[in-house]
Design goal:
This protein has 116 residues and is α+β, with helices and mostly antiparallel strands. 32% of the residues lie in helices and 32% in strands.
Length: 116
Amino acid sequence: MRLVTAETIPDRPIEQGDMVYACAVSGANILRDMREAVINTIGGHMTKYEGLLDATIARALEVLSERAREQGYDGVLGIRISHPTITSGAIEVVVAGTGFRYQGTEIRNQGSGSSS
């Protein structure tokens, strides 16, 4: 599955499809919040939050990839990643883009997971 932030694929002709999106939400815990609050006060890298954000973005992109595959797409282009605030102490990541198929390829069986 090809995931790109560009609006076009220069190496092969494609047919654009519909929007594909996914979201992931991860909650922080009180111990991590207290540790990060101390680091925020004295300065330094908030490594626990950075790791949580990285993991949440990766999970959202994986869900995006699965949804695109289920819809018969070869990839998603024009991907945008945002992280609005859903609630205090949680990280929400929303990813969205346009599904595409390479021209000349047949639509795969949606949701089958096999390539026969």
